[in-house]
């Protein structure tokens, strides 16, 4: 087969053609493998294979400090271990307590692992999480391992007992009664028995009841267990001598159609009178009819089943078909506003809505009320419903806000055309609505809808760039070539900031050759933030006039955006073309976003360009400790020495951030400092970590004592006091 034949075979295959086009476009809009280094991003988007691959290859990865606990949401325990061990220094054992992160994510395996490593947790919080997640194995583990540190255990006894009863965990109930019996009170037992009745947990009920002996039954035991026939019969036979006659009547009145067997039993054994039976059977018949259980309905109905008291909206599936609607109405059921609303939500059967609207009842309420009930149903592209509303003279002119969303797909065009022809936007909001709709159509390549809205905008007297610029950018950003060409052919006005949204060189070339777009100071920074294709950046950089005074500013802004976007290849390319690499804002941005790979490259690049570069790391370091990037802090200290922290009195600032893992790293180098320096710190006693962080203040005191202790081991004298003693006083 020659290449031409192969091309025709592939191109004419709709499936292959569509997929090839899709992946070509995807390659231009998705982030590149080398740029993906954020652990948080990969976890949030569930890129498990990518994350595992990068870990195995020992490639550069970074974690976002303020979201570092996201790793506990990794479902695969082996993958969690790989990530945890890679970033273990971010999770010191000493502080903060960490076990509740495992219980919050309902992961017993991680909880057990962390506990074995010596991590602590706030046990009351952990137990609350385990109970909320209905994880009995986790509850059991917490009770067995941390019984000694549970606060208000008396309170938790009732919660755990009810929880175990609710999920029918007999073994957990046995465990609680065996090991925590001292916390049992009559009130707790009463509640637990009620839970057992409501859940039909017969064995648990028997076990709980046996702990107190001859306990007098309560009426609610019977009324809450009516949906569990076996349980009810047990209670009835066990406590028959204690049941009052009026209880049988109350029990019967509580029964619904699902518990009809109980009513029949009470009737057969003459435990309820005829009047009670007549009342109850009608209720059960109506309940069964509403739930389409015709077998129970036929069993309990009588000549006066009161179907005429029911509305269509109360019957399950009443508006599923026109035949069903007619059948129910012939039985005497009534139409209410909710019935019409139900019918309006079925876009496939507009005849049901028409039929109901012709009923006499509908003349008693306004269409205004009807539309307020159906809410956004019209928005679901129900063209026939819109026609119905127009025919009945309802004014939808105030409902303009939602039609713009419908411009995403061309199949909604008939609806939009009818809607705007009948309810044109008022002068005040007309331009805004049309412009928003145009942007939606341009984003999702709804070419027919786009052209229709574009023609409407052309009728506006004020043809300002603001009308079209956003839609233009959306079309370019999504490489929607048909819409882009339409803009070009019409010589559409714009704000000349469109070029930077190009996702491919082809799109950029098309815009430039049209002579309607030029490169300006915003183009390069925009392309770095919006496009992942390095070729586009290179193409536009070659065209940027070198004499332009804004070139230096534009490139340095683009460098900072490449840092914030984590685009390493863009960063290297831009750095090589910058005439102002000494700009402190570059280092400060790196410190904010914590990309060690970029910082190391920046330092190496400076070293290659200057004999003895004097790099001021201070602004970068301040941002680094504020955000909590441990790798960057270690890197800068390795370059500058611990004296950087000591001489600038940054220790207090580090402590104030609350990043305990930074302090844990500094323990060793600080313990080797001059003891005289440690005692010379004179900070205000009011400068402490506020906000009720007593545990953190205590942690700081312990750490400072440890540092001083190590220093004193090398000193013959000195007044021992806490290094961070200004905290928590």
Description:
- The radius of gyration is 36 Å and the shape is flat.
- The longest helix has 19 residues, at 694-712.
- The chain has 43 helices and no strands.
- The chain is 60% helix and 0% strand.
- The protein has 729 residues and is mostly helical.
Quick summary:
The protein is mainly α and 729 residues long. The protein is 60% helix and 0% strand. It contains 43 helices and no strands.
Mean pLDDT: 81
Content of β-strand: under 5%
Straight-line distance between termini: 85 Å
Structural class, by secondary structure, is mainly alpha
Number of strands: 0
Kindly provide the radius of gyration, computed on alpha-carbon positions and rounded to a whole number of angstroms. 36 Å
Helix content: 55-70%
Number of helices: 43
pLDDT below 50 for ≥5 consecutive residues: which ranges?
A: 372-377, 679-692, 716-722, 725-729
Which term fits the overall shape?
flat
Main sheet characteristics: none
Quaternary structure state of the chains depicted: single chain
Task: Using brief descriptors, characterize the structure shown.
729 residues, Ankyrin repeat-containing protein, Ankyrin_rpt-contain_sf, SecEffector_AnkRepeat, mainly alpha
Strand and helix map with partners:
Layout: H1 3-11, H2 14-29, H3 39-44, H4 48-56, H5 77-86, H6 99-104, H7 108-116, H8 123-132, H9 136-146, H10 153-166, H11 170-179, H12 186-199, H13 202-210, H14 219-223, H15 229-238, H16 245-254, H17 260-268, H18 274-290, H19 294-300, H20 322-330, H21 337-344, H22 350-357, H23 367-374, H24 383-391, H25 413-422, H26 427-443, H27 447-458, H28 469-477, H29 481-489, H30 505-513, H31 523-530, H32 534-543, H33 551-565, H34 568-576, H35 584-593, H36 596-609, H37 618-627, H38 630-640, H39 643-647, H40 651-657, H41 660-671, H42 675-680, H43 694-712
